[in-house]
Design a protein that fits this description.
Layout: E1 2-6, H1 24-28, E2 36-40, H2 42-45, E3 55-57, E4 66-68, H3 75-91, E5 96-99, E6 108-112, E7 120-124, H4 126-133, E8 137-140, H5 141-154, E9 173-174, E10 178-181, H6 188-195, H7 198-204, H8 212-223, E11 228-234, E12 254-264, E13 274-281, H9 290-305, E14 310-315, H10 320-328, E15 332-342, E16 348-357, H11 358-366
Length: 367
């Protein structure tokens, strides 16, 4: 997995003042197995010298305009640097970029407002804008540090969730009654047992599995994507206590796979900081609160460890069970997407759409 990163965060003296701003979280990525960092400085790529006068974006304007402290318009250089950075990112197939906070080229969410008074405003640097528009996830070093710390606190020693490129690289999650882990080929018979039920697929929007090979294909597809988990009931130990996901033998003391839950791309949104909650569950497990329990854990995972800004969720208008899960998890209803998709029977159906923001989730968690 290749990750683009601002050179200054790695210790390269390429800032406007000729200095570096090394960041411990960014530099720690070099020690993660399978991670290759692609260092870049968009301002240098755009032909600007080091050192150079500080520059800021006119945050109040809708069209990108960058000027330096001497009043010179340097927009063209910033746009050139952004384009060259994009070419490097695409050539290396980077899906994630860690860029310097507040910078007129790399700032992600907050930038200095163009008055050269140290005032911050909502906005994005020239390079961050372009990368995000092309589907590259951009985070700054502050959010990176928080996400890495959350992963280490929740799963000590495990690979950080933000760096997972496949389901097998994701940490094992745990709730009071469930273990959430990657679905493995050995789970195919269990998956077929519930996915062959026509009522399960009909509510989730996919056709029932007709053979175990259908289930194996589903597992193979899920394994290629991160943040998708199988649901497994904890089996009480001999003394009546539940097993723990942290126990090395926990995998031997869980029941069969009874469903799946995950955070996947939302086909209705072009937002690299948003994912969609999706799930399905075996009919014998319905009505026990399992999916609400699992979904709350996955939301915590998404907002804390993946540093998401928003999670969405949808259901067919007739699916009251899903509606209740969504509402219990704190989502807000945002409307009906009319004639949104064809179901497995070919009938085009509406979708009820919901969203939960990072701020809303945090308020609910505190409450």
């Amino acid at each position: 997995m290749k990750i683009a990163v601002s050179s200054c965060l790695m210790g390269e003296p390429c800032r406007f003042d000729g200095r570096a701003c090394p960041n411990e979280a960014a530099r720690s990525l070099r020690d993660v197995d399978g991670i290759e960092l692609v260092e870049l400085c968009p301002e240098v790529l755009g032909g600007l010298p080091t050192p150079r006068p500080p520059s800021e974006i006119a945050a109040s304007e809708r069209v990108l305009r960058v000027t330096n402290a001497e009043g010179v318009d340097v927009t063209a250089a910033f746009m050139e640097g952004a384009q060259r950075a994009l070419e490097i990112v695409q050539r290396n197939e980077c899906k994630l970029a860690v860029l310097k906070a507040k910078s007129p080229s790399c700032g992600n969410g907050r930038v200095y407002d163009g008055t050269f008074t140290g005032t911050l405003a909502e906005g994005y640097g020239a390079t961050a804008r372009l990368l995000r528009g092309e589907g590259v996830r951009v985070i700054d070093e502050e959010r990176l540090g928080a996400a890495l710390a959350a992963s280490e606190a929740r799963h000590p020693g495990a690979r950080p969730a933000l760096l997972a490129a496949a389901s097998a690289e994701c940490p094992v999650l745990e709730t009071e009654r469930l273990v959430l882990r990657a679905i493995a080929p050995d789970d195919a018979e269990d998956v077929f047992a519930y996915c062959s039920d026509p009522d399960v697929g009909a509510d989730a929007g996919w056709p029932m599995h007709r053979t175990v090979e259908d289930s194996r294909a589903f597992i193979d597809a899920a394994a290629c994507e991160p943040h998708v988990f199988g649901l497994f009931e904890k089996v009480p130990a001999a003394d009546g206590s539940a097993t723990s996901a942290g126990d090395e033998s926990a995998a031997l003391r869980t029941g069969p796979c009874i469903g799946s839950v995950g955070l996947i791309p939302d086909p209705q949104r072009r937002n690299v900081d948003a994912l969609m909650l999706g799930y399905s569950m075996a009919k014998p497990a319905w009505g026990r609160g399992y999916m609400t329990e699992a979904s709350r854990e996955v939301l915590c995972y998404g907002f804390e460890e993946l540093a998401l800004d928003l999670v969405s969720c949808t259901h067919y208008p007739s699916n009251d069970r899903s509606r209740r899960v969504i509402e219990k998890c704190g989502f807000a209803h945002e409307g009906t997407i009319h004639a949104a998709e064809a179901g497995p029977d070919g009938v085009v159906r509406d979708l009820e759409s919901y969203y939960l923001t990072r701020v809303g989730w945090a308020a609910g968690a505190r409450g």
